[in-house]
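To fix ideas, we now present one chain and its tokenised fold:
***
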Amino acid sequence: MVDLTHESFAKHGDSLFLIRNIGILIVSEASLKNKYEDVKKKEPFLYEQGQKVVEMAKQNVLNNTAGEVFHSFSLTHDLPNETILLTDQTTVTLSNIEMSEKLFFMLLKKTKVTIGERFSITEHVYSEDCIREHSKARRSPFCLERYYRPVLGLTLENIERMAPNSIGCSLERVRLYNTGLINILPKLRINEDCEFESLVVIANKKEHVAIILSQEQTLCVGSVKKMALKNYAVSILSKLRIHKDSMVEKLRLNASEKEHIDPILSQGQLFCVGRVKNMSLKNYVVSVLPKTRIHEGYEVEWLWLNTSKEEHIAEILSQDQPFCIGRAKNMLVSGYAVSVLPKLLIHKDQEIEFLKLVASKEEHVSTILAQDQKFCVGRVKKMKFEEYAVFVFLKMKETRENLESLVLSINGDELWRKMQGELKEENTVICIEEVGKLTLKGHAVNILPALKTKREMDRFVLDANTEDQISEVLAEKYKGVSFEGIKGFGLSGSTMNLLPKMRIGEDCEIETYNLFAQEERQVSHVLGKEDRSIATGRVKNMELLWYAVCVIPKLRIHEDNIMESFVLDAGKRDFSRILEEGDSSIELGRIRTGGLGSVPEEIRRKLRYTLVGGVGNEILEERGEEPAAVSDGEVGETVDREATAVVEKRNGEAAAGGNGEVGETVEGEVNEVAEKEIKKETFFLGTKQPCFFCS
């Protein structure tokens, strides 16, 4: 039997749809069977040749239909049994049916299509019929995807003739990259309640979106979770209508040329982008910001602004008055976009949770630096400034009553030299007394002498790699920082050498105390200090990493302190200095049970500490100086002394009970004393036997 199934792109009943050079061929299996039987009767010799007759029958069917061209054809659920050829001269009418999207787009490419009433397209499933009556429509969502494929003239002509909203459909996602098929979007009738995963449109040519821009009405896209528009596709943003209660989780807009956004800039009125959780505007799209409006009363979780050229923000900088961008919880501004910051107004009732500015070049902030007056960005809880953006921080008004956390980071040597000169020339003092958490990285550590901080902080962190990045703080004329209260304290890299200048009050209660050094040079200034000369206050959790473990002898922990955990993480190289110390020579004070879990045994022998209970403060074990002698005789004497004391204590209680009962009690306590002393001896000797508090 002749089988064309593997050559067809769709099927309906016993009819197969095949692509030919001149159009689409619809062939019924019944006609193939009849042709096969004719060959079998008329050409028995060929029939005996097996496969040859199959190929002949197939070619006969295909060749005999070459001249049977339909000039008009109404495609319905009931297809005729005859063979049909649809070409670019055939007008195909589609109405009262639901059709698979694969068949529909092939008809657009090969024929003249006319859309009638009650027509829709659905997911293509090859094993199922590709046409259904409208009343039996499945409405299964499908993916509308085309990647960098040109759309031929016949397809565009068909799309132009279609009425808006004439094709019903449900979409799973839309991804159209540099294709004229983008223009079919306004022809689709997408239900407002339709929810689909993503809408991604890239258009590098204006004709890709020309039909959309030419129409007056907006385009309903239902509810979309993620939306990305690039280049000319950005211009259709004002034409899109998203369900009023829909939440767009991510909106990404990017335009590399000004003409990509001209249709939006030419509009006289604002347009609403709905409820957006995370919004990213890149390059020229940043200039569209004054034209956009977020849903009234809604807060954007994250707003990203990023531009790589100065002309990208020229439109905004040319405006005399600042503009309101609504409510934004977190903002990340980078590149030339940093310069538009003075033009932005946040809703008067809005408090920004986090503001991050990144400027890798001086020209990124030149507009702000040229201003004489300082500016205000509103109420912000947490700020982070990187590289040249630190200059912007210096330009801000000192209205930082809500600022909880501040991070300044400078890596460039040239940048620091410029800032250093400016700070010294103006003798700048930067007041950040309201900041509860301060982190300085790289050359920003050198700004510390110019900062006026409060003595009580939640968190204080310094991080630098080289001596040059801490030179101003390390200088003899700078006396250091004093803390009366601090919860989190951390020094990393070369800032470890600043430890002697960090004066922490003896009674400061510190939740976390972290020190980290990769090289010995980063702790060289500390190693030259006297033992127990650097106060740490009352520390709950202490962590020393790599070479930082070498400074333990220099630390002085409050004598009444109880440490929850003490962590040392280093290799043999880093521990070498500690191993040179005498046993039980480094005072740690009191530590909770389990708090020494990560400290190697050979290092524990160098420590002097007292283990206390996990709930109360009862003493479970003390590690002090090693006993002068460890012979069996001396251990025995100790046991005898304590046993005698127990017996004498119990003698006074003998009258209250029988001698047998007292004897059993004394014997039990004597055994406990002996066991305790033996374990304590092995503990100090550092043998492999279990120590007392581990039993």
